[in-house]
Write a structure and sequence with these properties.
With 219 residues, the chain is α/β, with parallel strands linked by helices. The protein has helices at residues 5-9, 23-36, 74-86, 98-102, 106-119, 136-149, 168-178, 193-202, 212-217; strands at residues 12-16, 40-43, 60-65, 91-95, 124-128, 153-155, 183-187, 206-209. It has an 8-stranded parallel β-barrel with strand order 1-2-3-4-5-6-7-8, surrounded by 6 helices. Strand 6 (153-155), helix 7 and strand 7 (183-187) form a beta-alpha-beta unit. Keywords: Cytoplasm, Lyase, Schiff base.
Amino acid sequence: MAYTKDQVAHLIDHTLLKPEATEQQIRDLVDEAKRVGTYSICISPNQLPLPDGVELGEVKLAVVCGFPSGAHHSEIKAREAALSVEQGADEVDMVINISDAVQNRFDAVQTDIKAVRDAIPGAVLKVIIESAALTDEQIVAVCEAAKAAGADFVKTSTGFHPAGGASVHAVALMKQTVGDALEVKASGGIRDGKFASELLDAGATRLGLSSSQAVLDTL
């Protein structure tokens, strides 16, 4: 399917998650998001509250949680998520406990997600499953755990794992698993419009992009 720049822009979480990101880079990120018309910006929790004078306008604010490893106590993830919402976040992108997932401990995965869900009842919760590090069977089970825990999205990747980022196969499998109950966010390694379009065709309804303008320019 062919997508316009405006259509895709409204599905983008314009992302800056480099640990060395500066206040000026956050200001630039917001300016670009407003200029391009992205749905949101996605940043690290240490960047909250936003710098003085920064106004998002219609752009939403997403913040990562338990990032990038997911290897945090559930209580810590829950408090981190709650603090981010207290400081203005509309959405939280949490990383699951990947160790539990690869060991097929899906009840534990669900419990971890539920802890964050309960901490931010009024915010959108996206669950990063690190799909490239999981088997198909594990992807399905983790998506089912996210659905049972009350998440709003399942998300492919942090973009920081050596196993890789988003794939069309993973997005299609995730969408097939969650159906209309949850949405699917594709992130990690999306650098051109062709790949972005393929991910949307596979069922993604949100894209995590750090090079938003470059992707839009290649649609």
